[in-house]
Design a protein that fits this description.
about 70% helix, about 200 residues
Length: about 200
């Protein structure tokens, strides 16, 4: 069967039986952009997403024999990607906390806003409350808040990542999100806007 006209599932099944560079190359061609975008959705960092994409392809090719064929290959590939990304994010939780401390200590930081996220992060409940916040605020507000306080991105960086017209738009998203997020956190204090 011609590789280029074969289904993803057929290529995966054949790859499990007879590994070849041609089959790996075809799956890579079909999925490299898709997996990169999935990774970027978790990391919001270009370099990290590229690195994770490479790691995930290695994992997919090594474990393609575990693909049962009962679901679409794309579904299985997404599950592999999601599990790998979540594992990597968990591993870097200490790095997030360090970024948060840097925000609090750095010049031009937004300590009151960081305090709100820090209060949640200290309880180990950050992910649960962030999940709950999805039904309480706009998706771009929540994303801007997480990017700023958890990932340590500056307002200028968030402007580029979220495609805002200018830094004022990104700053407004962060301020709105912080105000709403603060209502979900006991003892959160009102805060002034981010300076960066």
């Amino acid at each position: 069967e011609n590789v280029k006209s074969a289904t993803d599932e057929a290529i995966a099944a054949e790859l499990a039986r007879n590994p070849s560079d041609e089959l790996c190359g075809e799956l890579f061609r079909r999925y490299r952009k898709k997996i990169y975008l999935w990774c970027f959705g978790y990391t919001h960092d270009v370099e990290e997403a590229v690195d994770l994409t490479q790691e995930i392809f290695v994992k997919i090719f090594r474990n393609v024999g575990s693909f049962s064929g009962l679901a679409r290959f794309s579904t299985w590939a997404y599950q592999v990607t999601r599990n790998h990304c979540l594992g990597e994010l968990a591993r870097k939780s200490a790095q997030w906390r360090q970024r948060l401390r840097s925000l609090e200590e750095g010049a031009g930081a937004d300590p009151a806003g960081a305090e709100i996220y820090g209060a949640v992060d200290a309880t180990g409940d950050a992910e649960r409350i962030i999940e709950a916040a999805k039904g309480y605020m706009e998706s771009d507000e929540l994303e801007a808040f997480v990017l700023h306080y958890r990932e340590g991105l500056t307002v200028k960086e968030i402007t580029r990542v979220l495609g805002c017209e200018n830094v004022t738009g990104a700053r407004t998203l962060i301020q709105n999100a912080r105000r709403k997020f603060g209502r979900l956190v006991p003892d959160a204090k009102p805060a002034s806007g981010p300076d960066r």
